[in-house]
Design brief:
With 454 residues, the protein is α+β, with helices and mostly antiparallel strands. It has 3 domains: 3-92, OB fold (Dihydrolipoamide Acetyltransferase, E2P) (Beta Barrel); 146-227, E3-binding domain (Dihydrolipoamide Transferase); 235-451, 2-Layer Sandwich (Chloramphenicol Acetyltransferase). Helices cover 26% and strands 22% of the residues. The chain contains 10 helices and 18 strands. A 6-stranded mixed beta sheet has the order 9-18-17-16-12-15. Strands 1-8-6-3 form a 4-stranded antiparallel beta sheet, with no helix packed on it. Strands 5-4-2-7 form a 4-stranded antiparallel beta sheet, with no helix packed on it.
Length: 454
């Protein structure tokens, strides 16, 4: 009997995933451990391996389709084995059983469409305090004759904008011709190549502004119209939008900014680098944050507005920019790592993030996050707290600026840090003390000499 291949559940919050690419095709031999397909989860693309061997008998869910976890996406078995009939869930939703739902009849969109009777409204008893729900209003059916549809396609226009004069609002050929005359279609100037491309891509040429000689519509104009079409956000961007919107609308953010004198630390790091040490500026900031979070455990906690959850470990998230979005790998129990171990673990996670190889466990459980735009030449920025955390630290670029030292104006390397804090949990004085404690550690070279062995 064939073995079903199901969509794995990659994390507690994952409800559905999208197959990006099948690495095997129907009829291919499959061994244990072979990559069957790749999946786009909330924040990464992951390989799905085979747990059995045989032949890939059937691909049920093609690439590009989102389905709920545990959905059967294919079958592995031996040649000749019968494959169960499995219906693909539409639009990432489970297909209801016949017993639970009766599907409405399918109405064709051509002239042969049969008008559907209007829904009968439920009888409402007068003077009754009970509200009777209205029957659902059916969406209007688009009706167009074959000749009218062919003419609209030939002229590369959108027929849905035309008012039909046929039975039940059906669009007839005369309606299309009247619409073309009213819109001045016959005065339109368009290159043959542009018209052909518009037909193929279903671009309405009446909505395209020509930039050629005398307002002529060119291929470039059609391509520009195609580029401006709305496109669905990637799964990653949808999740980012959902979670950050949730955070910003449910957690009252406030911000505290300080300027850190990084002059001595940068010189110290250059000496370490010359000796072969792997430490980056981000590593020093991460270590300072870990040490300070242990001094200010409230900042390492979170709240839902009613209860406070204290975290016994510092699970430090470091935001990493990747193609198409942002991921936050988490260094779990960072307070138990040496400075060197923290540095190496951060480097490992960043490399996995950029390669799209992070596991769900490596992106969950964070208690505090650092987001660093120091390499992007920005003076400061205001971050959004990750949902489930109480604060986030934004690190800007280190810039040479005039500063006052001993009543003298000197050039120093200054870096601004901004703490975004959840005001339900953290007050202004606590936030100020916390970020100034990080600042003090970064400016304390003796501390770094003790923490490094280079």
């Amino acid at each position: 009997m064939p073995t079903p291949i199901t969509m794995p559940k990659f994390g507690q919050m994952t409800e559905e995933s999208t197959i990006v690419e099948w690495r095997k095709k129907e009829g291919d031999k499959v061994a244990k451990g072979d990559v069957l397909f790749t999946v786009e989860t909330d924040k990464s693309v992951m390989d799905v391996e085979a747990f059995t061997e045989g032949i890939l008998l059937k691909i049920v869910v093609p690439a590009g389709v989102a389905v709920p976890v545990q959905t059967v996406v294919g079958y592995i078995g031996q040649p000749g084995e019968p494959v169960p009939v499995t219906e693909v869930p539409k639009f990432g939703k489970p297909v209801p059983s016949v017993a639970s739902t009766v599907s409405p009849p399918v109405v064709p969109t051509t002239a042969r469409a049969v008008p559907q009777p209007a829904p009968v409204a439920a009888e409402v008893q007068p003077l009754q305090p009970v509200t009777v729900p209205h029957a659902p209003v059916a969406a209007p059916v688009f009706r167009i004759s074959p000749r009218a549809e062919a003419l609209a396609r030939e002229c590369a226009i959108d027929p849905t904008k035309i008012t039909g004069t046929g039975p039940n609002g059906r669009i007839l050929e005369r309606d299309v011709r009247a619409y073309l005359d009213a819109r001045g279609y016959h005065n339109l100037r368009i290159t043959p190549a542009a018209l052909e491309l518009a037909r193929k891509q279903k671009v309405d040429v009446l909505e395209v502004r020509g930039t050629g000689a005398g307002g002529r519509i060119t291929v470039a104009d059609i391509q520009r119209a195609l580029a401006e079409r709305p496109k669905p956000m990637s799964k990653m961007r949808q999740v980012i939008a959902q979670r950050l919107t949730q955070s910003f609308t449910t957690q009252p953010h406030f911000y505290v900014t300080v300027s850190v004198d990084m002059t001595e630390l940068i010189a110290f790091r250059e000496g370490l680098k010359a000796a072969g040490a792997p430490f980056t500026v981000t590593d020093f900031i991460a270590q300072a944050v870990v040490l300070t979070l242990q001094e200010f455990p409230v900042v390492n906690s979170s709240t839902d507005g009613k209860n406070v959850r204290w975290h016994s470990h510092v699970n430090l998230g470091i935001a990493v920019s990747v193609e198409g979005g942002l991921v936050v790998p988490v260094i779990h129990m960072a307070e138990e790592l040496t400075f060197l171990d923290l540095c190496m673990r951060a480097k490992q996670l960043v490399e996995k993030a950029r390669a799209g190889k992070l596991t769900p466990e490596e992106m969950s459980g964070g208690t505090f996050t650092i987001t660093n735009m120091g390499m992007l030449n920005v003076e400061s920025f205001h971050p959004i707290i990750n949902t489930g955390e109480g604060a986030i630290l934004a690190v800007a670029s280190t810039l040479k600026q005039p500063a006052v030292r001993n009543d003298q104006i000197v050039i120093r390397s200054l870096m601004k840090m901004t703490l975004a804090a959840d005001h339900r949990l953290i007050d202004g004085a606590l936030a100020a003390n916390f970020i100034n404690a990080i600042k003090a550690k970064l400016e304390d070279i003796e501390l770094w000499k003790r923490l490094t062995s280079w």
